Every structure is written in structure tokens, then in C-alpha cells.
Amino acid sequence: MLVILKRDNEEINRQAAQLIASAIKKKPALILGLATGSTMVGLYQHLVILHKNSTIDFSQVKTFNLDEYFGLPATHPQSFHHFMRENLFRHVNVPQCNIHIPDGTIRSNYDQYCASYEQAIRDASGIDIQLLGIGRNGHIGFNEPTSSIASRTRLKVLDQETLEDSVKSFAPGEERLQCSITMGIGTILEARKILLLATGESKAEAVARSIEGPVTSSVPASALQLHPDVTFILDEPAASQLT
Ligand code: GLP
């Protein structure tokens, strides 16, 4: 694993954006796995700037998002569809037909829907770069602790800690979430390159256990130790518990 330490968010975002920009230059039809969460906002702002100054052309890029809250329509302001539209897609030129985000509104044939998401990734010949954030409990995507390392795209019940973090951004009285649709850890591990960004002290324990701890389903991100090309880009607080 490559661990890159940066002074602050700004430097993390710049480095991650440059890495993605040079990958798109090398392969204009890049298959990009995308993540949501506050950690990604600054990175997407950088990508938008690089697009506006003509450094990046997304016209051939295909994207696959990690996850979505189960039960939220794409129009819901807290949905990951909405997050992606507002933070990235409405500012850049990824063709709509190249954007894939799990549908939080499916009501039946869940296994079939999840299998079709996996098939779409395979049909695109797999993900070149998968972006990840990390939850305080070590989750990646919505693969909460106890997720199998071989897991595939599926419905996953959200952990209490994740629910607490999620509902912070919901208006009082809005629907209580319980589940998500998420790529599995096995799905994530098939990406050719993985880039995980983490900032802040609240992520320090999860980061240290992921990088230095044993590989265990109690810390889903520790499964990344099994992947041959993973880069963590961290600020100092997030790296503070690393040996
Ligand atoms: C959600 C997403 C994860 C993300 C995490 C961290 O749980 N499903 O993919 O990594 O949030 O979010 P934040 O960056 O806001 O800490």
C-alpha cells in the first residue's frame, strides 16, 4: 500500500485530481468508480476546475458509483444521485448514458438488479480507478463491519454509527434510513487501482486499523491490504494513529 501524507484537504484534493486527470489523459475512456461523502466534495471541485480549463475531457469517461441509500429517489436532496449531480455531473461532460449509480427505489427483484449492476461494470471491462472514502467504523462504500470480503453488490443494513453520521444531514422528521445498495468488497477489490482519501481525526482509528491491522471483516477497509495497487491519501490528523 502506498500511503501519501498531505498537509491539508486542499493538497489531498489537488493530488487526487491530478492523478485522475493524468489517468483520463492516458485513457480517455477511463472507467471511474466514484464515491460520495464530504471528503469527496473538494476533489470534485478540483475536477470541475480542470474540466473548465480544458485539462480534462469526460466525454468518453464512464462512471460507476459505489452506493445509494435504499428508499431514496434520485430527486431526494440527500440521495447520492443528487450529491453527484450537484457536485460533479452538472458541471462536467460525462454523457448521461455513461453514468451509473445504484437505484435506491427498486422494490423487487433485488438480486437481479444488483447482478445487473455488476454486469454493467463487467461490460465496461471493469473499473480502472475506484475512489473511496472511509467511514468511522472502517466501512467502504456501505460495506459495514461484518461484510464479507468476497461480497458483491447487494442490499446492506446500515450500522448505527453510519446512521448517526447520515441523519445529521437530514431535516428533522425526514425518513429514517435503514439500508443501502452498495458495491461489495469483492466488487471494489476488482478495480485495477484504488484511491482512498481520508481527512480528520475521526477517521484516524479506522485508517490505522485498515493499513496496519489484521485483515478482518470487522474493519472492511482492511481488505484493501489484499489489493496490489492501493493508495491512501491522508491528512495528518487522519494519519495520526499510524505506527
Ligand atoms: C458514506 C459513503 C461512503 C463514504 C462515507 C464517508 O458512508 N457511503 O462511501 O466513504 O460516507 O463520508 P465522509 O466523507 O462524509 O466522512
Mean model confidence by pLDDT = 96
How are helices and strands ordered from N to C? EHEHEEHEHEEHEHEHEH
| Shape by Cα distribution | globular
Strand content of the residues, in percent?
15-25%
Number of helices: 8
How far apart, in Å, are the first and last alpha carbons? 14 Å
Percent of residues in helices: 25-40%
Strand order of the largest sheet: 1-10-9-6-2-3-5
The computed structural class is alpha/beta
Query: Ranges with pLDDT <50 over ≥5 residues?
Result: none
Strands, total number: 10
Largest sheet: 7 strands, parallel
Rg from Cα:
17 Å
Give the key terms.
243 residues; alpha/beta; three-stranded antiparallel beta sheet; 8 helices; 33% helix; binds 2-amino-2-deoxy-6-O-phosphono-alpha-D-glucopyranose
Could you explain how this protein is built, in words?
By secondary structure, the chain is of the alpha/beta class. Helix 1 (9-26) crosses helix 2. It has 8 helices and 10 strands. The protein is 33% helix and 17% strand. It has helices spanning 9-26, 38-52, 80-87, 110-123, 160-167, 185-189, 204-212, 236-239, and strands at residues 2-6, 31-34, 62-65, 67-69, 99-100, 129-132, 154-157, 179-182, 193-198, 230-235. Helix 7 (204-212) links the parallel strand 9 and strand 10. The model has no long low-confidence stretch (mean pLDDT 96). The chain has a 7-stranded parallel sheet. A 3-stranded antiparallel sheet has the order 4-8-7. The protein binds 2-amino-2-deoxy-6-O-phosphono-alpha-D-glucopyranose (GLP).
